[in-house]
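@channel sequence for tomorrow's demo:
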Amino acid sequence: MAQGLQREVALAGMHITKIPAVALLAFLVALVLTGLRFILRRTVIQASLAWALLAALLGLNGDGPAATMYLATGGLVLIVSLIETSHRMAFSDELTGLPSRRALTDALMRLPEAYTVAMIDIDHFKKLNDEFGHAAGDQVLRMIGSTLTRTEGGGRPFRYGGEEFAVLFPGKSTEEALPYLQDLRETIEASVFIVRGGDRPKLKPKPVRSTGGRKRVAITVSIGVAEPEEVGVEPDEVIRAADQALYHAKRTGRNRICIADGGR
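structure tokens (generated this afternoon):
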């Protein structure tokens, strides 16, 4: 009787799908696993894999043009997701979520004649890394990156590399951008960074424990600012001038802003 029931179920499955039971089971397992991965890590690649598997399942179960359309759609979804992911990896910084140095280069090529570039460097970052470890350094980089996203005046932040960032002000002179950079510097100076302990739990405890035993670190930044001196100046020259102003800010006391035509 049990064998007869299994035969009826198998015959019924043959009418529903043309895919063998083993292959159908493999598809279902793959879809479940892909769905779980997407829930844990919501990325374009994970979503595209789920849609591609579903399209392949429908394509293998279909006939003629419909099957071809499903399979082609699944392949197209994967191609588009790979292109988007590659673009994101090239133009976005994974640690801070800010646009990367390559994105800054691309933005500089499409700017109006008037613009200002501010190069920002975290003061005593190497010392912080040596004393508290690279994990603490990464926390500081993420904190600075988050603060830079709140820059007003149309400033666009970028992760330039290492502990250095850039903020681009399209259509603004250095004098126009300076008040926003001062606000940014003061905001970072006023913030308090608390170094997380190595035994810190992943989930926030209840009630919240006192931070009395944790190390509080003051974070400051030095900023160099530059703009094109004349029409036709290459963006690399403006970046270089802003970097020189940044080094001047470092040499003359840190936690300050210097503009390329001298210092402040």
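heads up for whoever presents: Confidence is low (pLDDT under 50) at residues 4-15, 199-205, 207-212.
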